[in-house]
Design goal:
Elements lengths: L10 H12 L6 E2 L2 E2 L34 H59 L2 H11 L33
Antiparallel strand pairs: 1-2
């Protein structure tokens, strides 16, 4: 036991001090080990290298099974097929892109041509004078304006004979 000051009191104090004074450390039991004077350690036997017993078997590296020829050829053919399909897809995509560009260029060219044609058409329409055409047709060429469904016949001065090389279609002779 210990009092407030921390000193040992009573029987415990006396036992510890008595044991220290009377005990010789060299010829008695000190704890659970016995001390021996001039103790020589046992000689170790030298082991022959390579014959040392092993506690655990030596670890073998994990063996990876090899790939046989048939599997290799199959994998190679599959890889070639995949690469062929990939390149064909990329080539097709490239062709589609270039055709789209060509279509856009052609559409722009068509629009440009249509605009030029409409401008030329408007110029032609603006340059033709229907009154002038009527004058030339009636005075110079002696044409007559038809009334309704009237058909005017004229006489051919060169010849009255007509040559027929085949039957007229739709005639019921």
């Amino acid at each position: 036991m210990a009092d407030i000051s921390g000193r040992r009191v009573g029987r415990q104090y006396r036992q510890n001090t008595h044991a220290r004074n009377t005990r010789n450390y060299y010829d008695g039991i000190d704890g659970n080990t016995v001390r021996q004077l001039n103790a020589v350690p046992k000689r170790r036997e030298q082991e022959v290298p390579g014959q040392r017993p092993r506690r655990r078997p030596e670890r073998q590296p994990a063996s990876m099974p090899g790939i046989d020829l048939v599997s290799f050829i199959f994998m190679f053919c599959a890889l070639c097929a995949v690469m062929f399909v990939a390149f064909a897809y990329i080539h097709t995509q490239n062709q589609v892109r270039s055709m789209k560009k060509e279509v856009v260029a052609m559409q722009a060219e068509i629009e440009e041509q249509q605009e030029k044609n409409s401008i030329k058409y408007n110029e032609i329409i603006a340059s033709t004078d229907l009154a002038e055409i009527y004058k030339r047709a009636t005075k110079k060429l002696h044409m007559v304006m038809a009334d309704g469904n009237k058909v005017y016949k004229y006489k051919n001065k060169k010849s009255d004979m007509v040559k027929q090389y085949a039957d007229v279609p739709g005639s019921g002779d």
